[in-house]
Amino acid sequence: MIHITLPDGSIKSYEQNITSYEVALSISEGLARNVLAAIVNDEVWDLHRPIQSNATLRLLTWDDEQGKDVFWHTSAHLMASAIEMLYPGIKFGIGPSIEVGFYYDIDFMDYTISSDDFKKIEDKMAELVANKEKINRIEVTKEEALKYFKKKNDEYKIELIEGLEEGTITFYKSGEFVDLCRGPHLPDMSPIKAIKLLSLAGAYWRGDEKRKQLTRIYAVTFPKKKLLDEYLLLLEEAKKRDHRKLGKELELFTFSQTVGVGLPIWLPKGAALRERLENFLKKVQKEYGYQQVICPHIGNVELYKISGHYQKYGQDSFRPISTPQEGEEFFLKPMNCPHHCEIYSCKPRSYKDLPLRLAEFGTVYRYEQSGELHGLTRVRGFTQDDAHIFCTPDQLEDEFCKVIDIILYIFKTLDFKDYTVQISLRDPDNKEKYIGSDENWKKAEKAIIDAVQKRNLNAVIEIGEAAFYGPKLDFMVRDAIGRKWQLGTIQVDYNLPERFDLEYIGSDNQKHRPIMIHRAPFGSMERFIAVLIEHTGGNFPLWLAFEQVAILPISDKYIEYAQQIAQQLENQGIRVTIDDRSEKTGKKIRDAEMQKIPYMIIVGEKEMENNTVAVRKHGMQDMGSMQLDAFAQIINNEIKNQLS
RNA sequence: GCCGUUGUAGCUCAGUGGUAGAGCACUUCCUUGGUAAGGAAGGGGUCACGAGUUCAACUCUCGUCAAUGGCUCCA
Known about the structure:
Elements: E1 2-5, E2 11-14, E3 18-19, H1 20-27, H2 29-34, E4 37-40, E5 43-45, E6 50-51, E7 55-60, H3 65-86, E8 91-92, E9 102-107, H4 118-130, E10 135-141, H5 142-152, H6 155-162, E11 168-174, E12 177-180, E13 194-204, E14 213-222, H7 225-241, H8 243-249, E15 253-254, E16 265-266, H9 268-287, E17 291-292, E18 298-300, H10 301-307, H11 309-313, E19 321-322, E20 329-332, H12 337-344, E21 356-365, E22 381-391, H13 393-413, E23 418-425, H14 438-454, E24 459-463, E25 472-478, E26 484-493, H15 495-499, E27 504-505, E28 511-512, E29 515-520, H16 525-536, E30 549-553, H17 559-571, E31 576-578, H18 585-594, E32 599-603, H19 605-610, E33 612-617, E34 622-627, H20 628-643
Helix pairs in contact: 3-4, 5-6, 8-16, 13-14
The structure holds one RNA strand.
């Protein structure tokens, strides 16, 4: 007999070689129906793998991330199996599960494939599911494994196997399809009830742009048809919220091929939105002791040689511009920090001046590969809500914490309730990618970790994700429909102060080196607004809306009354537009709704007589009539609540 | 930058080897209407750009540019 410890702490006795599936069955039939895999002693196992000695066991279902993982990983095999039957002789790269769904990288050899073929593949997959093919785990030696794939002439799998250690290698076989795989997998394909191939893309073998490009097929599967329908609905919703689409419809920004690719142009409504966000942040920063500065858009090459950016990025930047007479070279400003270092060093600094917090909405220009450009989220010219804090070592942690507070306050105000935090550290095995001494890196990394602990943030640590000059703390938010976006960033930097030879006189009358914090709560205005558009679906909070109230006179006779009302609201700082077209009320309402104007007020005979307004809120029905003052108070209260 | 897809009116899209269409938007006129589209008329396109094939190209071929889905990259 062996003892199995379950997650609730209970211990049950079973015959040796019992499987997780049998344990599930012994608990309840329903559980056995839903269980997908199991965690045996912290390792994910197949359900039918015998357990030989005492163990802890956690059964995985669709509700567990790891359960989904197994489900999708098995689905990847299912897809590969179907594709191999349809296109014999093709070769397979890798086929992992991803956050939602899975993909498989395939070398289609001489076949051409397009999304028109998806139906055919889906049908074949469904056919294999209907066969209830068992999936078997087979243990082989490395030699056997190599022999199998050499016979198949699959150089990708051969390369993968060659990279593995000597010893047992596992294959998984379902029907005729055999794949190199660590597993685990579902016992058979039958739980896969809904299948959808999503897209087709090129992907370099092993992510290396010098190697062959394979065809990647993205797909998703579910244990219930309903879940697939929900997911497809979510994708549709995401399309509706796409900031590129809404940006056009709401006239926020545009792109012009003549101006240049990746260079957004802000239209009046978008510019107003951006300005409001900037003013909001400026006000917060002022309270936190920041001072605004302004720097030019270009900087002498020398500046970037000092900062180290020239050596690191000079070749990948826009080419320098030069003066006609002297031939001096200038770069378009790719970041603000070197300029801010020059501001620091424009006069001697005392410890009494620190912390010095310099903020700038600095527009920067970076050469991004053409294939990378995407709406407002990846552009060649953008404005950072940048600031650099110069402080003493003693002040570092406190300053860092204050920056965290600003970022969290912004998230709260803009209704990003769900966020995660990532600490990005240096890859210690790849030190040549970074500049600066080991000692400084250690200090900087410790400062971040300490601040995160002090603010009780639940952060994940990523090795090798640091900037080349220092470690950083990144904030990711989840938007209203569950997608993750990277926004704010805070970075500790010991290197630039050294490179620019920044100093302050301490209380000991000695020279000391300040530490620098780079930080941008929004990241960039462009990117942040893109995320805000998708988060809100274009329904901006009242305080940010371009027009807060649309006044809709029922007919021309009431335009004058509408103008009186507009004047009174404008006197209170409320942004108003009057729709004085000779259209019917239904049409005016429809247009105001589509423009996502937060409030409409409809005025006609009744309102004019009683000196009232009929209010309608965006996305809602008629809210009835009220005095203008009462309405203005609703607006003002709503704004006050949003900004509190 | 690489691979795939796409490019027709301001927007969303149909269409054909014989020099182009719809809806919305726009202009004008009629209508003065009470909670998501009132009616009529009109203007608007070198069918992304450049070459080639053809009697003839918006349509077929090649190239360029751009958009787009990914990959690589991201101070």
